[in-house]
Amino acid sequence: MSAADVVIVGGGAAGFAAAAAATQAGASAVLLEKLPVPGGSSALSGGCLAFAGTPLQQAQGISDSADLLFDDLREVGGRENDEGLVRAYADRQLETYRWLVDVGIAFSPVIETASGQSVPRVHTVDPADMVRQLHGHAAATGRLTYVPNTAGRSLVRDASGAVTGVVTTDGRTFAGRRVLLASGGFAKDPAQIHAFAPQYREAIFIAGEGSTGDGMRMARKLGADLRDMAYIKGTFGKHPTDDTNDHSLQAVYKGAIAVNQDGRRYVDESLSYKLLGDACMAQPWHTTYQILDQDIFNSGDDRVRILDFGRRLEEGLFVVADTLADLAVQLEIPVDQLEATVARYNGFVDAGEDRDFGRKHLVHHFGALRRIERPPFYAYPSTAVVFGTYCGLRVDGDGRVIDVDGDAIDGLYAAGEVVGGFHGAAYMTGSALGKAVVFGRLIGLAAAS
């Protein structure tokens, strides 16, 4: 088979962003997708992308910048994330947003509160539709060869050590000047989860069926380095007994508090919901409750899955009562303790200082705290759910895979969930899907250069 300019492994947002950018710029691309239908975990996501300085923000009076985005990402990541990688994202994200708009992607208005952000910057899309549109855009050029039902098994190297192709599980070889691994994480591989994140063995896992770590294994055989393996996190807010709703709910970012089975707060609720997931998993039975009142409930946003309170109420997932005492009885937690916890928290709101956990805002550095006082009162049972592994191959700011000696593996690139080093110790809403399209596009453009 003649060599394509780029062989892409994985048909999610990163893979199709690369394919669309490369073919649009005149390059040829082969995209291998192991499942019959593309999309992967991208299509199952909440459709949030973190962009800064966009016309949508400006229209809503939101002042944002690449530098503020960079600072927030580094702070939320505990400065464990790769500074060069984060800088590359911050510097190239606005042009990626404009490119997506040109491709025909429609963004909803920016949502007000989200994890890890000093100002509102979450731009939402229909994620499955975004993948379809990127696929269609690449296919329309006539330079994309799409190969479904085909999984990668190993990487091919030439005499110089450069990666020059992919061998599939059915024995075929697809050759390319560059190879991009966009194959997702490993949330569907119990062995790797147990090896890297045994603390989450009791968590709920929701990810694309293809998320079995194929790309990471192929690159590791060539000596690829890994990043952030100690920071696999679950997302707080998944209802522990409901299988019909795949997404978490974040009432805490609208003013709710989180209490455990003893009726006590246990964390600063404004933290990244990944850190909230860690805190929740340390509580009895790995389940806690988001407690809110009618005013906080009314502040939900049905355009955003994690803030769609009305839908969860219709589905019967909220526990509702006219008094905190009745709510505590339904939750089987101590009445006096829940009442005391809410009263103490309201006192902190009035005083402007949370002396227990240091909470200052609704989320990260944004939003004034709210009292919990107007009935009816609501409780949302919550545990942690692992939507993605947020760790993996070490790459540089150009997406090149780096080996354990710190050298780039010639010809091998990675983008999306298979990449580590970008998130660090925690997570900002919109940064996973954001990094997929930003770095997917950059690698696609590199393939055409």
Number of domains: 2
Major sheet characteristics: 8 strands, mixed
Shape: elongated
Structural class: alpha/beta
Number of helices: 14
Share of residues in helices: 25-40%
Mean pLDDT: 93
| Head-to-tail CA distance between termini | 22 Å
| Poorly predicted spans | none
Rg, please?
Answer: 22 Å
CATH-derived topology of the largest domain: FAD/NAD(P)-binding domain
Specify the CATH architecture of the largest domain.
3-Layer(bba) Sandwich
The CATH superfamily title of the largest domain: FAD/NAD(P)-binding domain
Approximately what portion of the residues adopt beta-strand conformation?
Answer: 15-25%
Number of strands: 19
CATH class of the largest domain: Alpha Beta
